[in-house]
Amino acid sequence: MTHMKHESKSTQQTTRGAGGETHQCASARDETLTTNHGVAVSDNQNSLRAGVRGPTLLEDFHFREKVFHFDHERIPERIVHARGSGAGGFFELQKSLEKYTKAKVLTNVGEKTEVYVRFSTVAGGAGSADTVRDVRGFAVKFYTKDGNWDLVGNNIPVFFIQDAIKFPDLVHSVKMESDRGYPQAASAHDTFWDFVGLMPETTHMVMWAMSDRAIPRSLRMMEGFGVHSFRLINDKGDAHFVKFHWRPKLGLQALCWDEAVKIAGADPDYHRRDLYESIAKGDFPEWEFGVQIFTEAQAEKFPFDILDATKLIPEELVPIEIVGRLVLNRNPDNFFAETEQVAFLPSNMPPGVDASDDPLLQGRFFSYQDTQLSRLGSTNFHQLPVNRAKACPFQNFQRDGHMQTLLPKGRANYEPNSLADAGEPGGPRETDTGFVTHPGDVSGAKARVRAEAFSDHYSQARLFFRSQSNIEKGHIIAAIVFELSKVTLEHIRARVLANLAHVDPELVKRVAAGLNAPAPKEAPMPAGSVKESPALRLIGKYPPSLKGRCVGVLVSDDIDAATLNALYAAAANAGARVKIIAPKIGSVTLKGGKTIQADGQLAGNPSVLFDAIGVLLSKAGCAALLNDSVAINFVSDAFTHLKAIAATPEAMPILDKANVMRGAGVLEAIDSAAFAEAAAARHFEREPKVRPR
Ligand code: HDE
User: Fold this and answer.
1) CA-to-CA distance for 676 and 682, rounded, in angstroms?
2) Distances (CA, A) of 166 to 152, 169, 202, 250
3) Orientation angle between helical segments 470-485 and 257-266, nearest 10 degrees
4) Which residues are paired to 328 by β-bridges?
5) Distance (Å, rounded) from C-alpha 461 to C-alpha 473?
6) Residue 3 and residue 43 in contact, taking contact as beta carbons nearer than 8 Å
7) What is the DSSP letter of 381?
8) Is 488 exposed, middle or buried (0-12, 13-18, 19+ CB in 10 A)?
9) Lower CB count within 10 Å: N or C terminus of the chain?
10) Parallel/antiparallel/unpaired status of strands 321-330 and 286-294
11) What are the DSSP calls for 412-474, one per residue?
12) Is 50 exceeded by the pLDDT of residue 484?
């Protein structure tokens, strides 16, 4: 009888907890494979059978345990934000906020607080593509000495709705339509825009969601926002309002829409891979941490309500002060244990940080705790390594429940108790330094109402639109036209247009023209607070940079080694990763006979995966690719996606075939320094040539 056993050299059965601690799997005394209960396994290839060709026996406890565990490997994905990527790192405070808060994480300058961060899309399932048009989640769990602080934000500073009671409706409308089960991870469909048209409070957020902020180039190149107004409380009990901000060190960058669509096919894991690979090679993503702090008296003078999450506070009104930094320097050891099981609760705040009465935030305090029970299956989800408070003890009189992993000792499971008087452990006690809710005044009748101050849905939508560059305005309009053109019910389109008429006449006129629809009558424009806020722009907000970007160099046989090396070095010195792409996988033979290994093959590496390209072809190399649509698309996509292209003179025929118009960002010979400079930014001046509208 053949057992078909592998003489495998099994790796050490140790796992590292998300907390960083290393522990051996239960009873793995050495490298022995065991059952979950520690019994050594002698055969992991064949189930126990009655006879060589006979039926499998129920007695096979190893088979049953293995398949039983496998059958239950999945847990429910998150209702929203199911698709996510996580990483560990630290937060370092650079400037004390002790004037405003007693939270140690915001007062101990120089202290590094461990964090776990999860980025996500909102609408799609866990297996959906990374580059869809969507809001991105930006959730940070700080393991502070005062307990965990979860700042569960987004990459957009406002939200769709004002009251948490509308959240299930919003999410139902954007997710797959419930009879047909599509579209996946897309807002371009009837039900979403039906909701939008009927709920004018969504207008401001919709402008952001239709902007390029919703198609980020990288998770490392997004801003983050706490969205709500929170409170900071100092040791005297004084309160200030605060908004939290994350600013990416690599700058803010977006994809082109056509590029995002193509990446979704070429590499659905584009963002996850980008995050993982940059951390793995030591290129740690970093953000500045900023605060907008203001008093209640200031807040009262603003022409909007700071409790309304559909409004932002323009930086021109309250500047952002940078007080710390966030660095992500650790990839998860295990995706499930950390990124999937991490459970964020906006209600996790250390003493010194407190809530505001924002009705969206108040509703979130219920929802997140509640959802963990159906997702993680136990009220003890806080004990999972990634969720547990690591920088301070956690102890109380809560007991038992599914999957209790703690071992509380003694009889004291209630409080008060006097067991300590008899020498027995009495358990933990309250402290004056504990969390004290800010005693804000509350008055008024109990009612289901919306504050009058929440009623202006258009001023900030207009502020956002008018603050954009012309290129960005064009992108917003194109996105709305694209989405509405997928809407099949005309009355829904008409209602959205009527709302847009309150935002800006140019906007509605151009959207209507794009849809072949009559422009609605002009609507009155309420007076806005700030006329323009350049900080709301994406293009030009941060200095151009090649740092953290990726350059793809298409290389044929017989090209000059010195030219390639110079281009490679210039891009690498500017901080980019460089990938050598060859028509076929394997090696390329340079002029003079030296061979180099390619990092990838042309068809598997379309130019959408790069920020700039080199086209280093010999005469024969160019001729061989001239009728190859993959090569032509490589060049033409780079051109229409506004990327820098540097090509050898011998490669010109392929540039011509790809309709590459000469001009800024197109180098007709390899000048490596000029390329490094041109590659540091998109060439938006090219846009009218490739997308006339
Ligand atoms: Fe969430 N949201 N949300 N949300 N949200 C969830 O919690 C919810 C809102 C955000 O990486 C869920 O653990 C309600 C605003 C992020 O694990 C759920 C309301 C903002 C993540 C939930 C909101 C967010 C979530 C799903 C209306 C930006 C992913 C699974 C009041 C400030 C966190 C889970 C992660 C996840 C409820 C609105 C951000 C269902 C009821 C506003 C980044 O509990």
Assistant:
1) 12
2) 19, 5, 11, 36
3) 60
4) 89
5) 12
6) yes
7) G
8) exposed
9) N
10) antiparallel
11) --SSS--GGGGTS-------TTS---------S-------GGG---SHHHHHHHHTS-HHHHH
12) yes
Pocket test for ligand 1, best of 368, 370, 387 (most atoms within 8 A of CB): 368
The residues, any chain, with a CB within 8 Å of residue 627's CB and separated by 6 or more, are none
Burial environment of residue 362 by CB neighbours within 10 A (0 to 12, 13 to 18, 19 or more)? middle
Cα R_g (the chain), whole angstroms:
29
CB 162 within 8 A of CB 359: yes
What would the two tokens of residue 346 be?
A: 């906006």
Question: How far, in Å, CA of 269 to CA of 655, rounded?
Answer: 29
Please report, as a single letter, which amino acid is at residue 385.
Answer: P
The encoded tokens of residue 604 equal 């598997």
What's the CA-to-centroid distance between 167 and ligand 1, angstroms? 10
Ligand 1, atom nearest to 163 Cα: 31
Token pair in block for residue 588: 């390329």
The tokens 């090696």 sit on which residue? 587
Asked whether residue 99 carries a pLDDT value surpassing 90, the answer given is yes
What one-letter code names the amino acid at 276?
Answer: Y
CA distances from 592 to 156, 555, 628, 669, 672 (A): 53, 15, 27, 20, 21
165-213 pLDDT, tens digit per residue, is 999 999 999 999 999 999 999 999 999 999 999 999 999 999 999 999 9
Index of the ligand 1 atom closest to the CA of residue 227: 32
Nearest CA to ligand 1 atom 25: 81
Residue 526: its pLDDT value, please? 61
SS3 labels along 482-547 = HHHHCCCCHHHHHHHHHHHCCCCHHHHHHHHHHCCCCCCCCCCCCCCCCCCCHHHCCCCCCCCCCC
141 CB near ligand 1 (under 6 Å) = no
418 torsion bin: left (phi>0), alpha (psi -120 to 50), beta (else): alpha
Q: For residue 693, name the pLDDT band (cuts at 50, 70, 90).
A: confident
> Which residues, at least 6 apart from 544, have a Cβ–Cβ distance to it below 8 Å?
251, 680, 681
